[in-house]
Amino acid sequence: MNMHPFRLSVDSSPVELFLYLLAVVGVLWLCWALSKYLTKKSGAAGSTNNIKILERVSIAQEKGLAIAEICGGVYLLSFSNERVEILMELDRRLLKQPKATTQQNFRDILNSALKGRLDATGFDRKHPGSGNDGNGEA
Predict the structure, then answer these.
(1) 88 is a domain residue
(2) What are the backbone angles phi and psi of residue 24, rounded to the nearest 5°?
(3) Phi and psi at residue 74, in whole multiples of 5°?
(4) Residues 135, 124: contact at Cβ < 8 Å?
(5) What is the pLDDT of residues 29-69, one digit of tens each?
(6) pTM for this prediction
């Protein structure tokens, strides 16, 4: 009998290995669920009806510009660690409207990112004669 219940060895049975794998997957799922819950909670706590950040751009490490809607008006703001300033009020009609995007799940985004990429061996699937395919051609 194994005296150390949490130690894996060469003598570990496939059932033990599967249970350990299942436990790891369970912990990862719990972390994912907790992070999703906390994101919803923090988003709800930080949302207001009078102030919305429409766009934000970083200028330097701790400085940037933002377009904010505050009580119906739209303003260009500058911000840094020391201060926040309203630079000017903007005409709402001159703002570019964001393009409508459809929300994708992680699997769709990953699949679209991997299409046309090199496989794990470095061979290009779409163009077998291009890239580093081991025959010295570039």
Answers:
(1) yes
(2) -65, -45
(3) -115, 130
(4) no
(5) 999 999 988 887 776 655 678 888 888 999 988 899 999 99
(6) 0.42
Residues 65 and 57: beta-carbon distance below 8 Å: yes
Same domain (yes/no): 75, 35: no
Is 22 found in the same domain as 60? no
The number of distinct structural domains making up the chain is 2
DSSP state for residue 92 in the 8-state scheme: G
- The answer to whether residue 135 sits within a structural domain is no
- Band (128; pLDDT cuts 50, 70, 90): low
Q: What's the chain's average pLDDT?
A: 77
d(CA 46, CA 74): 19
Domain assignment of residue 21, given as a range: 8-47
